[in-house]
Amino acid sequence: MKSSDASRDASSGYIPKEYWADLAENFRSSDSEGIAPVLHPEAPAWFNRVIDGLQLRAVERALAMADIRTGARVLDVGCGTGRWIRRYEKRGFRATGVDATLSMLRMARDHQTVTPLIVGEAYRLPLPDAEFDCVSDITVTQHIPVSLQPIALAEMIRVIRPGGHLILVELIRGEGPHIFPRSPQDWIAQTSACGAKLVGWFGQEYLLFDRLFVFIAQKAAKKNAAPSTTATSSAKRSAAHSTAARRIYWGIRRVTAPSSARIDPAIDKICPAHLATHGVFVFRK
User: Fold this and answer.
1) Nearest CA-CA partner of 256 in 214, 193, 202
2) Number of folded domains in the chain?
3) Could you say which of 103, 150, 222, 271 would form a disulfide bridge with 24 (CB–CB 3.0 to 4.6 Å)?
4) pTM, full prediction
5) Does 124 share its domain with 24?
6) Could you tell me where the beta strands, DSSP code E, fall in the chain?
C-alpha cells in the first residue's frame, strides 16, 4: 500500500490493511475458530477463548439491551474471520459482514458462513443509507487512526435505519502502535455527534487479578533488564531466557486469567465501568 493511504498513522507507521493482512496470513492455522488473528495472535489458544467468552457475554447483553430480534438485518463492521456473523446467523439475524482485508474475508468464507461478505473500509462503507436494523462494531474503530474514527462512526450511523441501533465495543484504556482508545465520554460524544442517542453503556473485561499480575510482571521485567554493552550480548541473553520466561508468564496467567473471568460478572456489579478495559455502548439512531 502506498504511503499516501489515508488510514496510515503517521506517528507509528501503522497501515491497517497491511497489518491485518499479515495477521490473517501468519496466524491462519492458529486455531479452528479463526479467533487468533482478531484477538491476541501470539497468545495461547486458551487465552483467546477466555477473551472471546467475555466478549460474547458482553455482546449478548448489548443485543438484549437493544432488543434486536430474529430476522433483523445486522451488519458487522470489521467482521474479520467471521466469528460474530456466524453467531448472528445462529440467532436468526440476516447478517452481512464487511471488512477491509480480503484475506480475512477468505478465512470467514473458509468457516462456511453463508452471510454476504463485502470488501470495504469502516470509514467509507460501500452500502446504501438506512439499510440495517443494527450495526455492530466489536473492537474495530479502536484500530482506526484517530482522525478517521469520527468518519467511521458517522458511516455506521448512516447505514442504520431510523430507530435502529449501533453496538460499539471499544477500548477505553491502553496504548499501542495499532490501538487508539478513547475515554467512555469521548466515545459517547463522538458517536452522539453523528446523530445517535446513547441507550446505555457498561464496562467489559475487568480481569482484575490478571491485570494486576501483568502489571507486576511488566514492572519486574523492566527492573531486571540490565543495560547491555553490545547488541550481540543483549540478543544472546534474550534468547537464553525468553522461552523459559514466556512459559512461566503464561503458566501463571493460565490461573489468573480464567479465575478473573469467572468473577467478572460480580466485579461488574461493584466496580465503576470506567475501570474495565473496554466499554460496550448501545446507541439508537
Assistant:
1) 214
2) 2
3) 103
4) 0.89
5) yes
6) 73-77, 94-99, 117-119, 132-138, 160-171, 197-204, 278-284
